[in-house]
Structure formats: structure tokens, C-alpha cells
UniProtKB/TrEMBL annotation, chain A:
Cited function: Allows the formation of correctly charged Asn-tRNA(Asn) or Gln-tRNA(Gln) through the transamidation of misacylated Asp-tRNA(Asn) or Glu-tRNA(Gln) in organisms which lack either or both of asparaginyl-tRNA or glutaminyl-tRNA synthetases. The reaction takes place in the presence of glutamine and ATP through an activated phospho-Asp-tRNA(Asn) or phospho-Glu-tRNA(Gln).
Protein name per UniProt: Aspartyl/glutamyl-tRNA(Asn/Gln) amidotransferase subunit B
PROSITE patterns: GATB
Presence of the UniProt keyword Metal-binding in the record: no
Gene Ontology MF annotations: ATP binding; glutaminyl-tRNA synthase (glutamine-hydrolyzing) activity; transferase activity
Gene (UniProt): gatB
Catalytic activity reported: L-glutamyl-tRNA(Gln) + L-glutamine + ATP + H2O = L-glutaminyl-tRNA(Gln) + L-glutamate + ADP + phosphate + H(+); L-aspartyl-tRNA(Asn) + L-glutamine + ATP + H2O = L-asparaginyl-tRNA(Asn) + L-glutamate + ADP + phosphate + 2 H(+)
Enzyme Commission number(s) from the entry: 6.3.5.-
Gene3D superfamilies xref list: 1.10.10.410
Subunit structure as annotated in this protein's UniProt entry: Heterotrimer of A, B and C subunits.
Enzyme class: ligase
Alphabetical UniProt keywords: ATP-binding, Ligase, Nucleotide-binding, Protein biosynthesis, Transferase
Domain Asn/Gln amidotransferase residues, every copy: 355-502
Length: 503, 513
């Protein structure tokens, strides 16, 4: 039996995959905590900084240095676990995961192995109005590695590089790894379930306030496990693990791609190779990484430099009291407060815009207006740019400000879109852009009246129809006026003027 | 003892502290005397890997200024000390006796070293040791063996042979050692000095380059029991940088040593460990042990024999737990960030992995490689339960044996090591014979309990020192000092002076005072 990566297969049509196979999904999400200090030392756990400026003997792995557990990281881990309906261990230990890599200072990662701090939880995920229960196997604490930069090669990968640079600022930043049980029965919705799970998990992490949770900055990193089994067989096939899929959209695409690729390999009578695969954002495909057999031996054993973590039940209950609202209940509350239809709510959640709309509404925009911008204009632009709404560079504050200008009559929707152009071009705040681009609606009645007169004169047939009571015909004149005003007029007001002059 | 040995070098640290307090001497004088002694005899003994004369004298001058201002930093302010090369010292090379760390100068101090500095003890230098503390003879040092001051052709014990020899050769009044399976106590026994392994967690391990984290402890190496207590008190206590250090006050160990020195043992219950003696143990060592026991009985102690059946498995258990932890600890020596870097021969553009391999092949000695291999194997998938997992279970049994024994006795005793010092070279190629040296000392490390070794006299066969080991329950280090000080005072009275007074003169080079 051949087992190769089959990177050159002809993908199977998605519907055809579903006719023959059941997909099984598994997601591993790493969340970088926003604690002030690192997991096991007092160095700042902040993003960036001069290379190797946030380091000390402990996170550099100098001989003799020892770790001490960051209590705040334990607290964040427990809150994440509770929010995911997990059990919280009464007693658990850290373990050493031993392997050699230059960006890992000790050549072992201090992680948790068979005693995770959180285990046996679940999250209910909404996809197109249907709820999938995703079971959480575990959420455990560990430290991040340093970061290698390969210099001189064309690909930025280690092969072909002249030399590599290592920055240990990231080494020791606390991570929580959240691992699902195999998600079965999602069928055609597997890609959407994967995306919705990651999106909803991110919302939860943001609500908990334990991480910046920016996928584009690597605060939240998803690994996608996927396997196919013959339809109805009830077995689990060989899985692949696609690493570091860094947007919701990519999670969906990666699942879809792997389903189609697995089916192609299996259909040709070959076997799936258990391996790590790389996701390519630009081409939307995965390629073979390193082979990952179960024989890979990390020689885990309990970390002897740390005492066990034994959170008291009182503390756990105290932390339970600090949890944000349950996401499902929160969605129901928001839908009722906003007066959204089921479809509107589903689209909002599906677009990953719930939090954005909520923030925009909190800043004063009407719910429907907020929804309209995020799911319309901004979703279109995100899609064109292949980006997430959250990484577009337009904030809820911007959207609320633009809508405020519409509400007070300064802008109409068309002008507002030009303000967004300005925002994407980095031209300043909405008010600055309106001023700089002279976008405000002309409220000078004289100029407007003259433009209306001009349009009536230029379109006598249309004017006659309106005089005959066919008010719907006013649209053609409004268009002409707006054109001559270069859009800087309030269409409602133009209509009023036309009807008044022709009545 | 050499006739021309200046009296100041033979005095205990406690006496030197008094001399400094009374103004009878100065720290500069003491430090210079130690440095002169090192210059004179260390060519033959090789206790030191690095001597910091300039730094020590500067620290001594600062100590004298504090004394003159009436503000000594501690009772031992100004008393010089030697530090085992496994402890990180800011600005001083720290090699752990290994080529792989040759020239490495730590940017930070181990907590115990920081405490020495705060207390004002001038640091004379760094002492020799088996590479990464792996050995019982100091022959596994990459920088050559240390010689036993009692007989320069013999080993000084290990891994802390350098610290023990420095103290026994009167090069330093005090030293720090570390004890993972006996590396303080066994060298103490074979050099006629005193060494304590404190309760696990009693002294911070931060800055101790770990061999086996769950077994390692830093402790005092001295010539008297009281000195050991004074130094132990100075370095002990909770350290926020070591979460395995115990967050409760040390027992009154100095008081216990002073109380014990009265020689009154009435009401003290002593258990002799059945399993640690008999066939295979040197007769002269056992004779001195029995005589010591008799003295304690005469002083009022009740002595019974206690069986600790699991102790027969201690050595095997140790040689799974220790290498497992060591194999992981030593992974960090990879040429990427510090220490030795060796480029593979005949490779034009070597990868990081190839450099790691070449460096580790060249930088580690055979004993280190042996233990890395054993440990890697013991932790491997499919073998973990049978080896590392099983060893942890036996460890629990050994702890239970101790707990059961301490229900009926206050302390447990045995000879510290099965034999006196053996000739250099005799066991270096026979790992199993070497490992047997630690038979009696290992159980305390596996259970985390404290132990002390005090000299019990000279074995009649070879005229070399033997040691008497006293073990106590965790956190009851004071009992070790009470019984140890009592035995010491009884023996010194019998001998008419300290055992080291009987040591032969050392060949001297250059200007000895």
C-alpha cells in the first residue's frame, strides 16, 4: 500500500465527497493569554519588542534557572475551562515535552500531558440556525516557543536559508491549548461547523478578556484535524493535521479542501498518510509538512521543578462568578433587543460580525444600520480583500461615527461609502475625511433648487408625468439632480423639492 | 597536618566569626591565608577549577569595612568560602566540570550564592566536581580529578570532591556542595569532613544546574557540625524563584548543634538500618561505625535495629529516576545560546541539528552520555511504565519505609559509604562498582529526608577516614545536627583533637605562609 502525501491529486467535487464519506473534524486552538508576564518568569508577555529584549535566565533556559507558575495564567485557564463547561482538575501537573528545536530554549516545552487543568467540556455552536454540540476533550496550559526567522532563502522556510535568527521574546508566553473530541455527523456542514466553532470560541475568549485573540497576529491559532470514513461505517479514518490556519474563512476552506483531497486519495485506492500539512492562504491548498506518526516520542514526564497546581474549589467557584454571559443566551437576548429576524441574526453570526455589531450599537448606531454596514459594504470589501471583518482596519467606532453622520444628515449612504474609502486609505477619522474630501451633503437650498429646476427643464416628458400624478417617475429626476450635485445632496429632500415644484 | 600550617587556617568558621567580631583578625587576613594555601597546595590537590583571588580580596575588604563600621552583614561576614562549580555565579565561570560549558560566565547568581554575597562571605573560587555531578570520585571531571588530601593517589569522593577536598586541605573553612545521591555526604566521609544534605526544599535550587531536579539539594561542606549548621541556616529558607522550596521556617539547627555538643543523648532513639551494612562493607568502616554507636549509647541514646526492606531497591530506582530527569535537563546544552559550539567535520554548511550533534558528541563525557542514554530509554514510549513509572512507585515504598521507621526512632544511622577512599583509576571504567559508593546515601534523596555525614575515625586497614550518616524525617534537620554534634564532641574528646589533625602534610609549592 502506498502512502504518500498525494499533493498532486485531482480534487473530488464536494457533493461527491459527501455521497461516499462521513467527515470527522477535530480542532486544536492555541490561545495566547494577555497576562502581564510570561508563564514561568517575570518577563513582559507583550507582543513585539526588540528581538531578545524580553528575556531572562528562565525563559532563555540558562543552566540553573527555574520556572515558577504564573497564577494569573492559571486563573485564565480555569475561566476558559469554566466557560467551555469543563471540569477543573483538583490537582494537576505540568509535564515536559522533550524534543530538540533551536527556538525552544530548554529543548523541552513545559506543557501538560495526561493531567490537563480543564477537561470534559462542550460548546454549542450555531450553524444556519442548527446547534452542534462540540465536545471539548481538554484545555491545558503550556508555554510558547521562540520565533525563528530564516534568512537568505526565497521561501522564508528553513530549506535554502543562509542562516536563521531566533527571537526568544515569545518564548514562555502563556498558551492555552483547547482540544475538541472528534466532531462527527456534521456532514456537508463540516466546514461551516469548523468555522463557527473557531469564531464562537474567539468571541468567548474576547468576552472573557483573557487574550487579544487576534488571529492575524497569532494570538489565536487553529490546527484543523480531518479524516474521512466510508459513509455509515461508524469508523474513524486516518487524519491529517493542517497547522496554523489563521482566519475563520481559512478554517472553513481548509476543511473543505482536505475533505476533497482525502476523498481523491481514498477513491484512487490509496491510503491517507498521517501527517502535518501546511495551509497556503494565497492558493487555498494544503501541502505536506512533516510526517507525524504516533511513534513520535516526546518522552513526557512530570516537570520536577514545579509543584502541582491544585486550585481550591472555593477559588474555582469564585472564578465561575466572573464569567461573561453564556453565548447562546446572549445571542437570544441581543436578537430580541435588536429586533433582528432569525435570518438577520443567523447571517450576522455566520459572518462573524456579532461582536462588531454589538460594539457598534453600543457606540450609538441603530442595530439595523450597524448590521447593514458590517454585513453589506464591509463584508463585501473583506471578501474582496480575502480578509476577516475583524482585520479590515475599520473599527466599530468608525462605523458608529459614519452612521452618526448619516443620521444627522451630513452624509447619505453613497457618501458614507466614500468615507469608508478614506478610512481604508488611512486618511484619518470619518469627520476628517468628510472635511478633506468635501463630502458633506449640500444644504444650500438655492443651489439645490437651481439644480432641480435645471433637471425639470432638461426632462420635460418626465416632468409632465409627475404633473399627471405619476410620482414614481420622480426617480429619474432625482438621479439627474444627484448627478449634477455629485451625490452631495439628500435624496429625500430632492424628491420633496421636485414634487413641490411640479404639483 | 602540616606543622607549618598557620593556625588561622585550621580554625572553624564559628571560631573565625568570633575572631572577626573581636577584631583578632580581619577578613582580608583570612582570605589571603586561604588564597596562599590554595596557591601552595592546590597544584597537588586540584580542588579548584577557578580561583577568584581579586574578587575574594575585594569582598574581604568590604567585609572589614562593614565590621569597622559596626555593621556586619551576618555572623559569618568576612569568612571565606568555596563554591561547587555547579552553582551559577555571576561574573565567575561556571562549568559544572564539563567541556560543554567551558568559559561560560553566568549573568546571574544562584539564590544560595546571592545569599552568601548578602551575608558577606568572600567567594574564593569554584570547586571541582564530576561532570554535571555525575560520579562518586570526581574522576569524571573534564578538567582532571581532585586528589584526596589524606592520600593524593586516592579519590576525594564525588561528585563534590572539590568542595570536600578544599575544606579537608584547609584551603577554605567552608564550602557549598550539592547532593543528588550522596555528593555531599560521601565526599565528606572519605575526606574526614562534615557534609549535610538538607530536607528536599529546605534550600533553594535556583541557579543549581540540575542533574535530577527531584533529588538535588544544596548543602554545607565544613570541618565541624556547628559550622555546617551555621552555613545551612544562612543558605536555607523559602525562595520565590524555586517553587519546590518549602514555605516554612527552618528548624532551629544551630541551637540543635550547640545542644548536641554537650554530648547528652539521653532520650534520643537511634535506629540502625539493617540493610546498610554487612557483607561487602569494609570491616574498618563498620568497626568505626559500631564504636561511634557505642559512644552514643554511653551518652544516653537508645539504639535499636530497624529494617527498611525497600532500601535494597534504592540504587536501581535512583538509576532510573536520576538519568530520566538528567536526560531532559541536559538537552539545553545544544550550542545555540551559550557554551561550547563544535562544527561537524567535513560539512560545508551544517544545519543547526548537525551542530547540536557535533557539540554534544564532543562536549559531554562518557558518564554523561551513558546517563543521557539510560534516561532517554527509561522515558521512551512503551518503556515509561516499566522503568520511570515503576521507579516512582518504588520511591513511594522507600518513603513509606522511612515513615514507618521514624514512628519508632528519632534518627536512622548507617555508615555513610561502604568503603574508604579508593585509588584513583580503580573504578573509573566500572560504572556499577562506582555506583555502589552511594548505596547508603541514595535513600535519603529518593525520600527527600535530610542527612548528615560526620567523621567516625580512620579505618584500621588503610588509615583513611570513614563517615557516620545520620538521617532524620523531612523538616527535622535539627535532629541530624543534634546527634551529629554529640558524636563529634564525643569522638574529638576520644581522639584528643579533630580527625583532620591526623591528616598528613601536603606537598607545598611556592610561598606557603
Amino acid at each position: 500500500m502506498t502512502t504518500t502525501s498525494h499533493d498532486d491529486v485531482e480534487l473530488v467535487d464536494f457533493d461527491t465527497v459527501l455521497a461516499a464519506y462521513d467527515p470527522a473534524l477535530g480542532l486544536e486552538v492555541h490561545v495566547e493569554l494577555n497576562t502581564a508576564t510570561k508563564m514561568f518568569c517575570g518577563c513582559p508577555a507583550t507582543f513585539g519588542g526588540e528581538p531578545n529584549s524580553h528575556v531572562c535566565p528562565t525563559c532563555l533556559g540558562l543552566p540553573g534557572a527555574m520556572p515558577v507558575v504564573n497564577g494569573k495564567a492559571v486563573e485564565s485557564a480555569i475561566r476558559i475551562g469554566l466557560a467551555l463547561n469543563c471540569e477543573i482538575a483538583e490537582w494537576c501537573r505540568f509535564a515536559r515535552k522533550n524534543y530538540f528545536y533551536p527556538d525552544m530554549p530548554k529543548n523541552f516545552q513545559t506543557s501538560q500531558y495526561d493531567e490537563p487543568i480543564c477537561f470534559d467540556g462542550y460548546m454549542d455552536v450555531d450553524v444556519d440556525g442548527e446547534t452542534f454540540r462540540v465536545e471539548i476533550e481538554r484545555a491545558h496550559m503550556e508555554e510558547d516557543t521562540g520565533k525563528s526567522t530564516h534568512v537568505g532563502g526565497s521561501t522564508g522556510r528553513i530549506h535554502g536559508a543562509d542562516h536563521s535568527l531566533v527571537d526568544y521574546n515569545r518564548a514562555g508566553i502563556p498558551l492555552i491549548e483547547i482540544v475538541t473530541r472528534p466532531i462527527l455527523g456534521a456532514g456537508e456542514k463540516a466546514p461551516a461547523v469548523a468555522r463557527a466553532y473557531v469564531a464562537q470560541l474567539r468571541d468567548l475568549i474576547v468576552a472573557l478578556g483573557v487574550s487579544e485573540a487576534r488571529m492575524d497576529q497569532g494570538n489565536l491559532r487553529a490546527d484543523v484535524n480531518l479524516s474521512l470514513s466510508p459513509k455509515g461505517s461508524g469508523t474513524l479514518g486516518t487524519r491529517t493535521e493542517t497547522k496554523n490556519v489563521n482566519s475563520f474563512r481559512s478554517v472553513e476552506r481548509a476543511v473543505r479542501y482536505e475533505m476533497q483531497r482525502h476523498a481523491a486519495v481514498l477513491d484512487s485506492g490509496r491510503s491517507i498518510l498521517q501527517e502535518t500539512r501546511h495551509w497556503h492562504e494565497d492558493t487555498g491548498i494544503t501541502t505536506s509538512g512533516r510526517e507525524k506518526s504516533d511513534a513520535e516520542d516526546y518522552r513526557y514526564f512530570p516537570e520536577p521543578d514545579l509543584v502541582p497546581v491544585a486550585p481550591s474549589r472555593e477559588w474555582v467557584e469564585e472564578l465561575r462568578g466572573t464569567l461573561p454571559e453564556n453565548p447562546t443566551e446572549k445571542r437570544a437576548r441581543l436578537q430580541s433587543e435588536w429586533g433582528f429576524s432569525d435570518l438577520e441574526m443567523r447571517d450576522t453570526v455566520g459572518a462573524g460580525a456579532l461582536g462588531l455589531v454589538e460594539e457598534t450599537v453600543a457606540l450609538g448606531a441603530a442595530p439595523q444600520a450597524a448590521r447593514k454596514w458590517w454585513l453589506g459594504e464591509l463584508a463585501r470589501r473583506a471578501n474582496d480583500a480575502g480578509q476577516e471583518l475583524t482585520s479590515l482596519g475599520v473599527t466599530p467606532a468608525d462605523v458608529a461615527a459614519v452612521q452618526g453622520l448619516v443620521d444627522d444628515g451630513t452624509l447619505n449612504d453613497k457618501l458614507a461609502r466614500q468615507v469608508f474609502d478614506g478610512l481604508f486609505a488611512g486618511e484619518g477619522t470619518p469627520a476628517e475625511i468628510v472635511a478633506a474630501r468635501s463630502l458633506a451633503i449640500v444644504s444650500d437650498d438655492g443651489a439645490l433648487s437651481a439644480a432641480v429646476d435645471e433637471a425639470i427643464a432638461a426632462n420635460p416628458d418626465v416632468a409632465d408625468k409627475i404633473r399627471d400624478g405619476k410620482h414614481a417617475a420622480a426617480g429619474a429626476l432625482i438621479g439627474a439632480v444627484m448627478k449634477s450635485m455629485r451625490g452631495q445632496a439628500d435624496a429625500g429632500k430632492v424628491r420633496e423639492l421636485i414634487l413641490a415644484k411640479l404639483s | 597536618m602540616s606543622a607549618d600550617l598557620p593556625e588561622v587556617l585550621t580554625r572553624s568558621a564559628a571560631d573565625l566569626a568570633d575572631d572577626l567580631a573581636s577584631g583578632a583578625t580581619t577578613s582580608v587576613e583570612l582570605t589571603r591565608a586561604s588564597l596562599d594555601r590554595i596557591a601552595a597546595v592546590d597544584g597537588a590537590v586540584h580542588a579548584f577549577l577557578h580561583v577568584d583571588a581579586e574578587g575574594a580580596l575585594a569582598q574581604a575588604a568590604a567585609a572589614d569595612e562593614r565590621r569597622a563600621a559596626g555593621q556586619p552583614a551576618s555572623a559569618l561576614d568576612g569568612v571565606p568560602i568555596a563554591v561547587k562549580d555547579v552553582l551559577a555565579t555571576r561574573g565567575l565561570p561556571t562549568t559544572c566540570g564539563s567541556k560543554i560549558l567551558e568559559g561560560w560566565v553566568p549573568p546571574y547568581d544562584a539564590t544560595v550564592v546571592a545569599k552568601l554575597r548578602e551575608a558577606g562571605l568572600p567567594i574564593l573560587g569554584k570547586t571541582n566536581m564530576d561532570e554535571f555531578a555525575m560520579g562518586s570520585s570526581t574522576e569524571h571531571s573534564a578538567y582532571g580529578p581532585t586528589h584526596n588530601p589524606w592520600d593524593l593517589t586516592r579519590i576525594p569522593g564525588g561528585s563534590g570532591g572539590g568542595s570536600a577536598a578544599a575544606v579537608a586541605a584547609f584551603e577554605a573553612p567552608l564550602a557549598l556542595g550539592t547532593d543528588t545521591g550522596g555528593s555531599i555526604r560521601q565526599p565528606g566521609a572519605v575526606t574526614g569532613t562534615v557534609g549535610t544534605k538538607p530536607t528536599y526544599g529546605g534550600v533553594s535550587r535556583y541557579g543549581l544546574v540540575a542533574m535530577a531536579n527531584s533529588l538535588d539539594q544544596v548543602g554545607p561542606v565544613t570541618r565541624t557540625v556547628l559550622d555546617a549548621a551555621l552555613l545551612h541556616e544562612l543558605i536555607g529558607g523559602h525562595d520565590p524563584l524555586d517553587s519546590t522550596s518549602i514555605a516554612q521556617p527552618l528548624p532551629g539547627i544551630v541551637d540543635a548543634a550547640r545542644q548536641g555538643a554537650t554530648g547528652d543523648m539521653s532520650g534520643v532513639r537511634i535506629g540502625v538500618i539493617t540493610e546498610l551494612g554487612g557483607d561487602g562493607w569494609q570491616a574498618g568502616v563498620q568497626d568505626r561505625f559500631r564504636e561511634s554507636l557505642d559512644l552514643l549509647v554511653k551518652a544516653g541514646a537508645d539504639v535499636v535495629e530497624v529494617s527498611c526492606p525497600s532500601f535494597v531497591h534504592a540504587l536501581a530506582t535512583y538509576y532510573l529516576v536520576m538519568p530520566a530527569e538528567a536526560s531532559s535537563n541536559l538537552a539545553k546544552f545544544d550550542a545555540m545560546r551559550y557554551g561550547l559550539r563544535v562544527l561537524p567535520e567535513g560539512v560545508a554548511s551544517p544545519s543547526a541539528e548537525e551542530v547540536m550533534k557535533a557539540t554534544r558528541a564532543a562536549g559531554f563525557g562518557d558518564e554523561v552520555k551513558r546517563r543521557i542514554m539510560i534516561g532517554t530509554y527509561a522515558l521512551s514510549s512503551g518503556y515509561y511504565d516499566a522503568y520511570y513509572g515503576q521507579a516512582q512507585k518504588v520511591r513511594t515504598l522507600i518513603s513509606r519505609d522511612f515513615a514507618a521507621a521514624f514512628e519508632s526512632v528519632d534518627v536512622l544511622v548507617s555508615p555513610t559509604a561502604p568503603t574508604t577512599a579508593f585509588p584513583i583509576g580503580e573504578k573509573v571504567d566500572d560504572p556499577l562498582a562506582m555506583y555502589l559508593n552511594d548505596l547508603a546515601t541514595i535513600p535519603a534523596n529518593l525520600a527527600g529526608v535530610p542527612g548528615i555525614s560526620v567523621p567516625s575515625g580512620l579505618a584500621s586497614e588503610d588509615g583513611l577516614p570513614a563517615g557516620f550518616q545520620i538521617l532524620a524525617p523531612a523538616l527535622a534537620d535539627d535532629r541530624c545536627y543534634r546527634v551529629g554534634a554529640a558524636l563529634e564532641s564525643l569522638l574529638v574528646e576520644q581522639w584528643g583533637g579533630p580527625l583532620l589533625a591526623q591528616a598528613p602534610a601536603l606537598p607545598s609549592e611556592g610561598a606557603s605562609a
